[in-house]
């Protein structure tokens, strides 16, 4: 059996990476049948990328930031919200009116730390919990409260979560190194999904439709023998 790693480069405050993750999950549900699972297994590995590394840890209101930097009029902002609502297709209820946008280094630090010490399933739940908290519930993307709650939702012991979250040096050098590695690999935007294949790797940049992820996964399955 061939074991394929799906390398997912993302930022927890990038809506397009949330869409890509959601669509990739749906594609995996379609492709990973009992028959294909005898040929290949897919494991997600998360790689950190910061779209805005100079953001403060406190941040600023999300809605205000989008208006100030991207959509300066009420009409433009409302159009953007409608576009993202459409992209979410009723499955991701994007919330751009509440919450703060802020530096994501601590969020990535926590994800990378537990990715090294827990199962892929736990890491996946942690990432999804952080996405949901930020994009749907209007929570701060990297406050201690948000991070600990996401860890608990992923099944991580609360005391362990508190220890890692509150010790800001825990895993810091490792996550900074991982971020630099992505930059050295030429990553300058997210999401980037690279699926390792026996014969060749498949790389998809940007949030693709479910069908495109299905096609890429099926190619890896086909070439796994």
TrEMBL record:
GO MF assignments: oxidoreductase activity
InterPro entries recorded: DSBA-like_thioredoxin_dom, Thioredoxin-like_sf
Top-rank lineage group of the source organism: Eukaryota
Pfam family, one: DSBA
CDD domains noted in UniProt: DsbA_FrnE (cd03024)
Record domain DSBA-like thioredoxin: where: 5-217
Protein name (Swiss-Prot/TrEMBL): Thioredoxin-like protein
């Amino acid at each position: 059996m061939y074991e394929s790693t799906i390398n997912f480069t993302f930022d927890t405050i990038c809506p397009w990476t949330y869409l890509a993750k959601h669509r990739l999950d749906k594609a995996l549900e379609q492709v990973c049948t009992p028959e294909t699972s005898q040929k290949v297994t897919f494991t997600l590995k998360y790689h950190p990328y910061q779209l805005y590394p100079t953001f403060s840890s406190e941040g600023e209101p999300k809605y205000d930031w989008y208006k100030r930097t991207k959509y300066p009029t009420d009409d433009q902002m409302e159009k953007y919200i409608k576009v993202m609502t459409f992209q979410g297709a009723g499955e991701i209820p994007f919330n751009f009116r509440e919450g703060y946008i802020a530096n994501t280094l601590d969020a990535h630090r926590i994800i990378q730390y537990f990715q090294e010490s827990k199962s892929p399933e736990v890491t996946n739940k942690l990432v999804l919990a952080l996405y949901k908290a930020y994009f749907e519930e209007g929570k701060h993307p990297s406050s201690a409260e948000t991070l600990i709650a996401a860890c608990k939702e992923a099944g991580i012991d609360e005391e362990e979560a508190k220890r890692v979250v509150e010790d800001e040096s825990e895993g810091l050098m490792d996550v900074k190194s991982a971020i630099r590695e992505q930059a050295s690999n030429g990553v300058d935007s997210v999401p980037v999904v690279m699926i390792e294949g026996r014969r060749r790797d498949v790389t998809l940049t940007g949030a693709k439709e479910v069908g495109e992820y299905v096609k890429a996964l099926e190619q890896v399955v086909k070439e796994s023998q």
